[in-house]
Design a protein that fits this description.
single chain; binds molybdenum atom; seven-stranded mixed sheet; globular; binds ligand MGD; alpha/beta
């Protein structure tokens, strides 16, 4: 990205045309990044037990607290829980401190919840965690299979590159996802497999390849091991097309079509993300995919291979430094004794971790049980994002010392911190990140450090020094990076593919001017974007890749009578994780403004929940109350809910409270896509919506959600007892002054109440209550805040609760230009057969900035075409 601070405090951002990953394109969250750099709600000063203190005092509190704990209870009583949103330099020093000086492997990361299954899969197959491909391979592949990935919403630039390749070269795209998504909408084939049946499906493909002469015998014989066992296991676990289709809940013809496409296409990439990884069989799913690529020799060539698409900005950097409890450092294993010795020598450290520490879920169990008594959480919000999140909250409540480094001061997790440390945010911090395709890029600061915020690497080094440890005298991120590069080459001898030794003596100027480059860069600094393993040599000691014999398993917790639905969780297009940053942007909050649970229309009837009403979802672990959506995107038996909402944005919508802490036995990654739940109507006596220009404390009603608009904050409300709405309206809006320009309308019979107040003929706030959730159109209400003078007709409209011209925009589709579904549909109807996203974009601008909404525009066009065809 190229960012330019403007005079008025705004930041202009655009894609960097020279970067190989995006070639100048940005998705909607990227385009709106400028909205999130403001200092509102930023953490700007260190605090200890709620009191503002100096940095020296804060550092001393952390260092003494951790050291005392180690002295009294041993090194296993302390832990770090870090994140793929740290820079590589931050990650490197955190890992060095815990593993090389505290001397235990009690450092794990939120990447455990994200791509640890993919890591374990690569490790088993290749002997090392190596992503073998680059994004341009996706453009030269003739078939791209997306497994458990909503690429259109989560990796929009990748999807745009894929669809462009398809237009120019006619390549094909297949999506394997139980849900219909914006991604499956644009695919050539969508296989809505039953949740958790991916291993069955790829085992079936392995058998199919064997039976249709599609095994590359020469490759299998020379470069792999374990083929016979893998094939036997696949046959034993089902195997035949008909049987596999039955288990996967697919039509045999559709499955056959996919198997035939895979078999007939030499250049296939199978790209996968959370639908694969976040499973109790996540590692097996990854290996089931890799097995098929090894068997057919579809690896080590341009445009062919298994491609784990990662999530966070620097999840990959964390993998490189060894930020997991099961690795030591720089792709060196904990159980590799000579490797351990080499790292210890290199660090010149007093002790070195030798045993695996507790993986994320277990780490928080140990905090809960009191085994871990001091934890330092950096750049992650576990009270929202871990499974069984109410228990996580309880664990932190009990923990004697909780230190949190964050950029925001009001997260669900920071509420439990004894020590809060303000970190530098994007735009301020300085260092490197690695993306899905092994490419290391620089992040450079262009904003001054706000308040007393400091870089994460520096905070960690300060604490390490205060604990009395040498080896943390870094003055700049460049010095940290240089050491990291040296370690990658230390005692390597080609044993580890991760090697950036060519940069061991990188100068400050070279670091400053770093251009994106992919590892390995062992001797030359040339970027290594070509496919890995092109020579058929893998990283196991014998140089052979491993097939893994897989017996398919279904998810550990199947639905029951008490909890008859499967809760599937994931992302929405315009929000990022726990919303601490995207929640600041009105633009990004307009696409999906509320937490919801989406269920098949037939199941909605079965469970007596109605679209637009509220429903309670309950699992064995916790519950939440959210808006109901119905339709046919989610298959029967499943309910889908987004992960983003939390205490700062809703009274009761943390999906993590429900998700089960079942984990994959190898990777320890939690099964976040599969929790048995019950769903029932939430009996609200009334519903409300309120918009105000002023910021207000959380409303004191039974249920609420909050969303930021461009010039207002909007609350959705619901209550359980019908009090006096006139009193409640003034209380919620904070209007005590009886002289204010206040309007109200009530219809006691229909149980409707509306109120608004104006200052200088400008709308300051309005609230609508109704016994039914039939409230005014939100996009229209939002637009009223841009009106500078209200005339009588508009005042009337305000009380009538509908626009004078009656033109509803409908739900927002294009956040960049604020274009709703209704005008897009009208335009599609008018254009008829000539309707394309590009043509509609010419008229309404929608989809012409970042393009993240193009798949949804496509869908509106398709809906209109069906409507027209049906008369
Ligand atoms: N807009 C947006 N983009 C993001 C993020 C964000 O927060 N917001 N976060 C980033 C991060 S950290 C990550 S990890 C990525 C995640 O990117 P994705 O993995 O694409 O996102 P998810 O929505 O978590 O899940 C993907 C899909 O898995 C499907 N799924 C569920 N169960 C199964 C199953 O058993 N089998 C199969 N085959 N599919 C299944 C779900 O229905 C869902 O559509 O996104 C990154 N990009
Ligand atoms: N049910 C369910 N749960 C899930 C998932 C799912 O699909 N379903 N997905 C999982 C996945 S893949 C992921 S990646 C996780 C994400 O979950 P989290 O990591 O908990 O989510 P974020 O909101 O990204 O948290 C990052 C925190 O770091 C802060 N921060 C941002 N930049 C910096 C920085 O530079 N320094 C510091 N110190 N702090 C910073 C932010 O304000 C925020 O509080 O959620 C996981 N949880
Ligand atoms: Mo992630």
């Amino acid at each position: 990205m190229l960012a330019t601070p403007l005079k008025d405090g705004e930041v202009a951002v655009r894609g960097d045309p020279a970067h190989p990953a995006n070639r100048g394109k940005l998705c909607v969250k990227g385009s709106a990044l400028g909205d999130t750099t403001g200092l509102e709600d930023r953490l700007l000063h260190p605090t200890v037990r709620g009191e503002r203190v100096s940095w020296d005092a804060a550092i001393a509190t952390v260092a003494e607290g951790f050291q005392r704990c180690i002295d009294e209870h041993g090194p296993d009583s302390v832990a770090f829980y870090v994140s793929g949103q740290l820079l590589t330099e931050d990650y490197y020093v955190a890992n060095k401190l815990m593993k090389g000086y505290v001397g235990v492997a009690n450092i794990d990361t939120n990447s455990r919840l994200c791509m640890s299954s993919a890591v374990a899969g690569y490790k088993r197959a290749f002997g090392e965690d190596v992503v073998p491909l680059s994004y341009e391979d996706l453009e030269i592949a003739d078939l791209v299979v997306l497994v458990g990935s909503n690429t259109a919403w989560c990796h929009p630039i990748i999807l745009q590159r894929l669809t462009a390749a398809r237009e120019s070269r006619g390549s094909k795209m297949v999506v394997l996802d139980p849900r219909r998504t914006a991604t499956s909408d644009v695919a050539d084939l969508h296989l809505p497999l039953l949740p958790g049946t991916d291993v069955h499906l790829f085992n079936g493909l392995l058998v199919w390849l064997a039976e249709h002469g599609a095994v590359d015998r020469r490759f299998v014989d020379t470069h792999t091991a374990g083929w016979e066992e893998a094939l036997d296991a696949a046959r034993a676990g089902g195997g035949s097309l008909v049987e596999t289709a039955r288990v996967c809940g697919l039509e045999a013809e559709a499955l056959r079509a996919f198997y035939e496409m895979f078999t007939a296409t030499p250049s296939v990439i199978t790209a996968y993300s959370m639908g694969v990884n976040q499973s109790s069989a996540g590692t097996d799913k990854a290996n089931a995919i890799i097995n098929c690529h090894l068997a057919s020799g579809r690896i080590g060539k341009p445009g062919a291979g298994p491609f784990s698409i990662t999530g966070q900005p620097n999840a990959m950097g964390g993998r490189e430094v060894g930020g997991f409890v099961h690795t030591l450092a720089s792709h060196i294993d904990l159980n590799d004794a000579p490797g351990r010795k080499a790292v210890q020598e290199f660090w010149n450290s007093p002790r070195i971790a030798s045993e695996q520490g507790p993986k994320a879920v277990e780490m928080f169990e140990r905090i809960h049980s009191g085994q871990i008594k001091a934890v330092w959480i950096m750049a992650t919000n576990p009270v929202v994002s871990l499974p069984d999140a109410d228990k996580v909250r309880e664990a932190l409540q009990r923990c004697p010392l909780v230190v949190v480094s964050d950029v925001m001061g009001n997260t669900d997790t920071s509420a439990f911190a004894h020590v809060l440390l303000p970190a530098l945010a994007w735009g301020e911090k300085d260092g490197t990140v690695t993306n899905s395709e092994r490419t290391i890029s620089r992040q450079r600061p262009f904003l001054p450090a706000p308040g007393e915020a400091r870089a994460d690497w520096r905070i960690i080094c300060d604490v390490a020094r205060a604990m009395g440890h040498p080896g943390f005298d870094f003055q700049t991120p460049h010095e940290v990076f240089r050491e990291h590069a040296q370690l990658s080459a230390h005692a390597n001898d080609g044993k580890r593919a991760f090697n950036i030794g060519a940069w061991s003596w990188i100068t400050p100027e070279e670091y400053e001017n770093w251009q994106p480059a992919a590892w390995p860069m062992t001797r030359t600094r040339e970027t290594a974007r070509g496919p890995m393993f092109a020579d058929g040599k893998f990283m196991h000691p014998d140089g052979r890749a491993r097939f893994v014999a897989l017996t398919p398993r279904l998810p550990r917790n199947p639905p029951t009578r008490q909890y008859p639905l499967v809760l599937n969780t994931g992302r929405v297009r315009d929000h990022w994780h726990t919303m601490t940053r995207t929640g600041k942007s009105g633009k990004l909050s307009s696409h999906i403004a509320e937490p919801f649970a989406e269920i098949n229309t037939e199941d909605a009837l079965r469970f007596a929940v109605r679209a637009g009403d509220l429903a309670q979802l309950r699992s064995a672990h916790g519950s939440m109350v959210v808006r109901v959506r119905t339709g046919s995107d989610v298959p029967s038996g499943m309910v889908f809910a987004p992960i983003h909402w939390n205490r700062a944005f809703a009274s009761d919508a943390r999906v993590g409270a429900l998700t089960n802490p079942v984990v994959d036995p190898i990777s320890g990654e939690p099964e976040l896509k599969h929790t048995p739940v019950a769903m029932e109507p939430y009996a609200a006596d009334w519903y409300g919506v309120m918009l105000t220009r002023a910021s207000l404390p959380p409303p004191d009603v039974a249920w609420w959600t909050r969303v930021k608009g461009e010039q207002f904050v909007r609350y959705e409300l619901a209550g359980r007892e019908a009090g006096d709405w006139a009193v409640l309206a003034r209380k919620l809006l904070g209007v005590n002054d009886l002289e204010v320009d206040w309007m109200e309308y009530r219809d006691a019979g229909r149980k409707v109440y509306r109120a608004a107040y104006l200052v200088d003929d400008r709308l300051e706030g309005c609230v609508y209550f109704d016994a039914r959730p039939a409230l005014p159109e939100r996009a229209w209400l939002s637009r009223l805040f841009a009106v500078s003078r209200f005339n009588e007709a508009m005042r009337g409209a305000l009380m009538a609760g509908r626009a004078i011209e009656g033109a509803d925009q409908g739900p927002t589709i294009c956040s960049c230009f604020g274009v709703g579904k209704n005008p897009i549909a009208a335009c599609a109807r008018a254009l008829g057969a000539a309707a394309t996203p590009a043509e509609i974009g010419k008229k309404l601008k929608c989809g012409t900035n970042c393009g993240s909404c193009v798949p949804e525009i496509q869908r509106v066009i398709a809906e209109q075409a069906v409507k027209t065809a049906n008369g």
